[in-house]
Amino acid sequence: MTTTTTILRSDGLSCPSCVNNIESNLNQTEGISKVKVHFNTGRIEVEHDTETVSEEKLVKVVAQSGYEARVSQF
After folding, report:
1. pLDDT band at residue 25, thresholds of 50, 70 and 90?
2. Which of 26, 39, 56, 58 could form a disulfide with 35 if both were Cys (CB 3.0 to 4.6 A apart)?
3. How far is CA 42 from CA 7, 18, 51, 66, in A?
4. Residues 43, 48, 54, 57: is their CA dihedral positive or negative?
5. Nearest to 58 by CA among 18, 11, 23
6. What whole-number distance in Å separates Cα of residue 24 and Cα of residue 34?
7. At 25, which helix (H) or strand (E)?
8. Domain chopping of the chain, boundaries
């Protein structure tokens, strides 16, 4: 198992319930061990197993939550 932290950015967070929705959906995804969504900055930090969950999968889970996200370097 190879664990890494991937940073995503989302510009569409309009309320604190957005944070709960994204965190809940990501936490239910196999291979993800930790999630932190920062409402004010749109920063989504995801600690995950790279062999189980790709960056593309992370973006897809956020999209299924109703929000656009993209991989960010910081």
Report:
1. very high
2. 26
3. 10, 10, 26, 14
4. negative
5. 23
6. 11
7. helix 16-27
8. 3-72
- Topology annotation, domain 3-72: Alpha-Beta Plaits (3.30.70)
- 31: which 2 tokens? 């291979």
Residues shown for the chain: 74
pTM above threshold 0.85: yes
Residue 25, both tokens = 């959906």
Q: Could you read off the pLDDT of 49-66 as tens digits, one per residue?
A: 999 999 999 999 999 999
The tokens for 16 are: 């604190």
- How far apart are the C-alpha atoms of 4 and 47, rounded to whole Å? 6
